Amino acid sequence: MAETIAIASDHAAVELKAALVAFMREAGHDVLDLGPDGPASVDSPDYGYRLARAVAEGRATRGVALCGSGIGISIAVNRNPACRAALVSEPLSARLAREHNDANVIAMGARLIGVEMAKACLAAFLATPFGGDRHQRRVDMLSSPANSSSERQPA
Q: Over the chain, what is the mean pLDDT?
């Protein structure tokens, strides 16, 4: 099923972003490319926040966050409580991020992953549904710490 996928990167991941945009469009998805458009140095948090807003506001159902390591941009995305970004480097972690954690953003490091592996991770992420059931309680905790038993009980 086609959906709108937002994608953003920093300067280190512009080439990987272009390859993944083409990959998603070939698969029939609408792509919301949030930049940047070239290799000039930019700050990954700015693009992570931009991506998180697009997902939180419903302009995209899911997102792809890219930077050199994938770490900085994923931290920025995860600042938004509507987003659950998972940093992945192979298809199994991408599949489990969706199935167990209902991740709505996948993050990858362009300096750490090749284009073909990134495509395999993205394909697994987009093809895997959330498992629900026993995982839903934990996803609720991720979205709101007040739902966590550790927040309701004194330490």
A: 90
Q: Which residues are annotated as a binding site?
A: 10-11, 68-72, 101, 111, 134, 138
Yes or no: is domain 4-152 CATH 3.40.1400.10?
A: yes
- Report the C-alpha gap between 16 and 9 in whole angstroms: 9
Binding residues for D-ribulose 5-phosphate: 10-11, 68-72, 101, 111, 134, 138
**What would the pLDDT profile of 80-92 be if each residue is shown by its tens digit?**
999 999 999 999 9
For the entire predicted model, the pTM comes to: 0.89
CB distance 40 to 64 below 8 Å: no
Q: Taking the domains of the chain in order of start, what are their residue ranges?
A: 4-152
Catalytic residue positions, numbered: 67, 100
pLDDT in tens, 57-69: 999 999 999 999 9
Q: How far apart are CA 7 and CA 13, in angstroms?
A: 11
